[in-house]
Amino acid sequence: MSEPAAPGVRLADVRAVLGRAGAAPGPVEVAAALRSLGALVSEGNVRETVAALRRESAGAGPLEPLLALRGVTDVLVNGCQQVFLDRGVGLEPVEGVFADEDEVRRLAVRLAAAVGRRLDESSPFVDARLPDGTRVHAILGVLTDVGTCLSLRVPSRRPLTLDDWVAGGTMHPRAAELLRRVVERRVAFLVSGGTGSGKTTLLASLLGLVDPRHRIVIVEDSRELAPVHPHVLRLEARPANAEGAGAVPLVALVRQALRMRPDRLVVGEVRGAELTDLLTALNTGHEGGCGTLHANSAADVPARLEALGALSGLPRAALHAQAAAALDVLVHIGRLSDGTRWVEELHLVTWDEASGLCRPMPAWRFPAGGDPVAGAGAVRLEELLRC
Question: What is the pTM of this model?
Fold first, then answer.
């Protein structure tokens, strides 16, 4: 938090004095800096100033206390005036975190540097993963109207089981039962949902149910999935360096994963040309493959797949044929009006001979606070899970 170093002296002033002298923020150096600024020097002032300077230079600085709060999944900074956090019930504003734009920018630049990335006017945004697994996106004020913006996604500190989902009021018991059987029967599936809906967390919970004798190979753009399973390999894409070289895209990693004898191939988030390789893999004997996909509903998934298939030049008809043969079930998770997450529906992926397109067939819908509603595909889903 932005706080005074001592009565009448700002922390920024102390930092400036230390910077000009090239001094470390130790007790002796801080006491000298306070004296040079005309502040009253006491053991308490020195101790508090040293602690404040070290908080600012370690971890996520002023955001560290927010990231440590129980249940926090996201911390969002819209310039120095607006900070929000999400604890699963929607965004909550937090006051008095930053003093000015310079403080936000320094933090953003330091977080980028911590993972070997550059953030300046020539490269004004960055998307990276911090050493503790926190995903950070930063964009400088030169591209926004509010100043430097930060978006931090906090990894789950404790992997959730399906029982946890049910107990926490985010999944109906019937949905949990069906999802257990989906994993057990090695059915290929996608988890769809909007940003921050809990797709990755749900997928990690489901992967924890995979037979411990099976080898899971996970491919992700930024490493987030951490299932509790004894045999997991996690491959992470790599962006280009400052010279524009060294990038390793998801599509390359999916192809490498296929050579690593996976029992379950997982694409943490399908978002580009790697879709073609995933569908090809699921059509060539890799049972039980899965991933997540941004979509507003299960019914919107085919259109989303079409858009991604176009990125790799896959014709519409071929995309639908591949998807219908490769995928079995769609699981959709969303947010309720109060901000809480909720597993909303299960659909079957079916083939429509008349149109030559794959179509989601509703199997089960789970109204919040109500009883499950069986759809046209409920019987066929039962047959699929019984085979």
Answer: 0.77
CA torsion, points 328, 330, 331, 337, in degrees to nearest 10? Answer: -170
Contact 164/71 with Cβ under 8 angstroms? no
Is the pLDDT at 268 greater than 70? The verdict is yes
- Measured CA to CA, the distance from residue 335 to residue 339 in angstroms comes to 5
Q: Which residues of 233-272 are buried (b: 16+ CB within 10 A; e: fewer)?
A: ebbbbeeeeeeeeeeeebbbbbeebbeeebbbbbbbbbbe
Q: Which residues of 178-216 are buried (b: 16+ CB within 10 A; e: fewer)?
A: bbebbbeebbbbbbbbeebbbbbbbbbbbbbbbeeebbb
State the CB neighbour count (10 A cutoff) for residue 302.
Answer: 21
Structure tokens at 364: 């089960």
Percent of the chain whose pLDDT exceeds 90:
49
The correct CATH number of 162-386 out of 2.60.200.20, 3.40.50.300, 2.40.10.10, 3.20.20.450 is 3.40.50.300
Residue of 323, 345, 324, 326 lying closest to 334 (CA atoms): 345
Cβ atoms of residues 273 and 314 within 8 Å = no
Find out whether 233 and 255 touch, Cβ atoms under 8 Å: no
Compute the 3-state secondary structure of the chain and give helix, strand, coil in percent, each to the nearest 5. 35, 25, 40
Tell me the two tokens of residue 295: 């979509």
Q: For residue 368, report the phi and psi dihedrals to the nearest 5 degrees.
A: -60, 125
Q: What is the 3-state secondary structure (H, E, C) of 120-166?
A: ECCECEEEEECCCCCEEEEECHHHCCCCCEEEEECCCCCCCCHHHHH
CA 308/CA 312 separation, integer angstroms: 7
Model pLDDT, residue 2:
47
d(CA 140, CA 145): 10
Q: What are phi and psi of 247, to 5 degrees?
A: -70, 140
Annotated domain spans of the chain: 1-58, 60-155, 162-386
Q: Which CATH code is given to the segment(s) 60-155?
A: 3.30.450.370
